[in-house]
Design brief:
Number of helices: 15
CATH class of the largest domain: Alpha Beta
CATH superfamily of the largest domain: P-loop containing nucleotide triphosphate hydrolases
Radius of gyration: 26 Å
Structural class: alpha/beta
Number of strands: 17
Number of domains: 3
Helix content: 25-40%
CATH architecture of the largest domain: 3-Layer(aba) Sandwich
Strand order of the largest sheet: 5-6-7-3-8-9
Distance between the termini: 55 Å
Low-confidence stretches: none
Mean pLDDT: 87
CATH topology of the largest domain: Rossmann fold
């Protein structure tokens, strides 16, 4: 007996208030227990699909159907800023109205599922990025939803966390829809792809594992390009003959008309070849002229069993030197960077007068209430006028129409590109980067890696993206898990 359809999109059109079409006659259905990837260019409507499934958005035309009494849970990309001051228990209580008396027991159950062990009275904002990623998944699971929506669930997770998540999803017997740029992760458990095309606004359905589907899409694009090339050649040949015959009169003029009809038919048969996302332009982060010991580390604090321990470790960073900090989620990597930036790290110091360019994994250094223009302008240093600033922003796909938007209204990927544009405008002597590829489209990552390799100041970085790390020329390593032994 076939499994029941749990979600159905029937000729769904959607556009936002500014009359910007996102979906045009979207049609697809998902059966109970299906595990699919939602794929598409930035801005194609992946988050919109999630909003329609949750019922937060309403289609302009068509119908979105969820089977009767089915519940939907979402693991979002990031914890909302207003939730960072809550304790873990208070955070989970937000999922219920009224709050059940056995909430601590239910929390313990989902925390075990996501392999997270933290005290219930710990503030959410005190958790590491990886711990918050697991918390987001646990929050989505606590109501035992029939449909689980995952938005970039591997961001901030170490390899152990990713492996645990894969094992859970393989065994999970309910419907899962995932947005992710992590191809290896997706290939482990998804069985189909819903592709959203930003240019046609259409949805396309593919069946198979992630790698097979992407290969199929690539081959299809190649076939479309070949067909277009053949048609273009035919069209050009016919146009040349039309110009010749049109001036001959009599039967030749009739032949010219017939050829014009053939040209029109060929042009109609031209396939709209999928155009992928634009890639950011090559860029350089200018370095402040600094000499001496830009960063001096004498000891580090490591979190073991939720308690800090101090370990001696001497590292000195000068210009053109790059340090990678590694270790599992929750060991204190991001805490170390935050304390270093704030000047509250007893075991490490930054040379005075050094301009620090800080990329925070949760964008805590961005003012969400500022406009994009003001955010860029506040980072602008001497040597850049407003026209230069706009040119830098355009290189990161931050165009003029975004300048008046609030930073908080940008997608996470756009916030990441804004953060990089600000680094260029700051001319820092020290870069401190905490998971700089989170939320970033994979097409941009080689460009970012090249820019970081060319950077001539000092740099400290945390990253759980092994392919990205391999592209960076690292001089020093601070392996906190080895130091903890």
């Amino acid at each position: 007996m076939a499994e029941e359809v749990i979600i159905r999109f029937d000729n769904v059109d959607f556009e936002y208030q500014e009359k910007r079409p996102i979906l045009d006659s979207a049609c697809f259905s998902l059966r109970q227990g299906a595990k699919v990837t939602l794929m598409g260019q930035n801005g194609a409507g992946k988050s919109t699909i999630f909003g329609l499934i949750r019922g937060e958005l309403k289609p302009k035309n068509g119908q979105v159907s969820i089977s009767k009494d089915s519940t939907v849970g979402t693991a979002r990309q990031m914890v909302a800023r207003e939730d960072l001051i809550l304790t873990v228990e208070e955070y989970f209580a937000r999922a219920f109205d009224p709050v059940p008396h056995n909430l601590p027991g239910r929390i313990a159950k989902v925390m075990e599922v996501v392999n997270l062990q933290v005290p219930l009275d710990r503030k959410v904002g005190e958790l590491s990025g990886g711990q918050q990623a697991r918390l987001l998944l646990a929050f989505a699971l606590i109501e035992e939803p029939d449909v689980l929506l995952l938005d970039e669930p591997t961001n901030n997770l170490d390899q152990s966390g990713i492996d645990h998540l894969i094992a859970f999803l393989v065994m999970y017997d309910k419907t899962v829809v995932v947005i992710s740029h992590d191809a290896d992760f997706l290939n482990c458990f998804t069985e189909g792809v819903i592709y959203l095309d930003i240019f046609t606004k259409k949805t396309e359905i593919y069946v198979g594992d992630y790698y097979s589907v992407t290969e199929e899409i690539t081959k299809r694009v190649e076939r479309e390009e070949k067909k277009n090339a053949q048609l273009q050649k035919t069209i050009q040949d016919r146009k040349e003959k039309v110009n010749f015959f049109a001036n001959k009169g009599g039967k030749m003029r009739k032949l010219a008309k017939k050829m014009r009809d053939e040209i029109e038919e060929s042009e109609e048969n031209m396939v709209e070849v999928r155009r992928e996302d634009k890639t950011i332009r090559d860029f350089t982060i200018p370095a402040q002229e600094m000499n001496g010991n830009i960063v001096t580390i004498n000891f580090v604090k490591i979190i073991v069993n939720h308690e800090p321990i101090v370990k001696p470790k001497e590292i000195i960073l000068r210009k053109k030197q790059k340090l990678l900090i590694s270790g599992p989620n929750g060991i204190g990597k991001s805490t170390f960077l935050r304390s270093l930036v704030s000047g509250k790290n007893d075991g490490a110091m930054i040379l005075s007068e050094v301009v620090v360019g800080y990329y925070s994994q949760d964008f805590a250094n961005l003012d969400f209430a500022q406009t994009v223009f003001d955010s860029l302008d506040s980072a602008r240093t001497s040597g850049y006028d407003v026209q230069d600033m706009r040119a830098v922003a355009a290189g990161f796909l931050i165009t003029g129409d975004l300048m008046g938007h609030l930073v908080g209204d940008l997608s996470e990927g756009q916030k990441g590109l804004l953060a990089f544009a600000r680094l260029v405008l700051m001319k820092p002597g020290l870069l401190i980067l905490d998971e700089p590829t989170n939320h970033i489209n994979f097409r941009h990552i080689p460009v970012i890696a090249e820019a970081l390799n060319k950077y001539e100041g000092a740099m400290i970085m945390i990253s759980h993206a092994p392919d990205f790390v391999k592209e960076i020329k690292i001089d020093e390593y601070l392996e906190l898990d080895k130091l903890a032994k």
